[in-house]
Amino acid sequence: MPKKAKELTATQVRRLTAKPGLHAVGGVSGLLLQVTKSGATSWVLRYSTGEMRTTASGEAYAVRHDMGLGPFPEVTLAQARDAAREAKQQIREGIDPVAERKAARDATRAAQAKRKTFEQVARECHHVKAQDFRSEKHRADWISSLERYAFEKLGSLPVDAIELPHVKDVLDPIWTSKTETATRVRQRVESVLTFATVSGYREGENPARWDGNLKEVMPNVGKRKRTKHHPALPWQQVPEFMADLHTREGVGARALEFAILTAARSGEVRKATWDEIDLNARVWTVPGERMKAGKPHRVPLSDQAVALLESLPRMEGGYLFTAPRGGELSDMSISAVCRRMGYTEPTTGRVVVPHGFRSSFKDWARSRTAYPDEVSELALAHVNSDATRAAYARDELLPQRSRLMVDWARFLNEGVPESAEVREIGEARG
């Protein structure tokens, strides 16, 4: 029978710290104070679970295990004895305390791994699947669409906590207005969550799955008139575009520049005539027959818009922007300017179109200004609510719209050198 160690007091234990080695402290069999040559001290419980092994000579021996119980004096003698007694109780119940501790540690690590955020997993997925993309542009578009539309609402959420309402919250704002983009975003969110599942970061159904899932709660855009998506530049890039456009000659380039400055539809600009312009009042009045709402639309003119108009050849009753052979400018003339300039929408890779700058204007107004939403809606002649319709009928908010268009022109002018002058239409026809 092994000799029982004397039960030491706390004072006696402190005296042992000057002697390197393993010292039995008594109270619980196998409880030792370990002192290293460097002077570090810690508690160790030496125990056996009853497992037997055989030496090369055939002698049987009990396998010995050492279990750390923490540093001394941070863990006191009394605390070390309590921990040792708990471990001994586990051994009596057939549980190896070291194996149990390792299993608990592994479970904690696994739980922590599962708490990765959606953005972390999305970027990991993007990196792992880098070779699967058909081009570098596709690879960049894939992550940029999530950055633009998904990360704001999903990015910081633990990936294992994401459910259908979270995904729906991402898709709702763009489902009917940017259907193609929303579809791609949904597919990419689904891919990220599938990757998370196979990587062990989450369990259960994929809340971004379409069939039998989101399909049941999202509007069926296939059964309604689809809102046409017009490729557009992010509002942050429009000043750069305007600086480039400003250097180009031709009637098409000037018409596009005027359309962007006024946030007007290209058809309204192409058909605009001089008798609609009041340079003194700085207002362009588009007749009701050319407006989707059927009502005359007054467009405030900024300094930049007025300067552009003053640079044009003036013909009373004639078009502002006359085609090279006379008459109304064709829609293709303005669209061709965009095609030649080659700017593309980051999320789709499609060349931007004139109408897309109305979306850029709206996004800028929402992101960079404090104007109420109805002010920019009226500037775009969007009459899609009772309140906006009433304000439109009474021609309200014109002063606010004037200030909005001045701010828009100043923003657009950030990319244009101060010394630049309005380009003449010249011989080239853009």
TrEMBL record:
| Keyword vocabulary terms for this entry | DNA integration, DNA recombination, DNA-binding
Which Pfam families does the record match to this protein? Answer: Arm-DNA-bind_3, Phage_int_M, Phage_integrase
InterPro entries per record: DNA_brk_join_enz, Integrase-like_cat_sf, Integrase_catalytic, Integrase_DNA-bd_sf, Integrase_DNA_bind_dom, Integrase_recombinase_N, Phage_int_M, Phage_Integrase
SUPFAM superfamilies given for it? DNA breaking-rejoining enzymes
Molecular function GO labels:
DNA binding
Q: Which residues form the Tyr recombinase domain?
A: 228-407
Residues annotated as signal peptide: none
Q: Name one GO biological process term.
A: DNA recombination
Which family, according to the similarity comment?
A: Belongs to the 'phage' integrase family.
Q: What name has this protein been given in UniProt?
A: Integrase
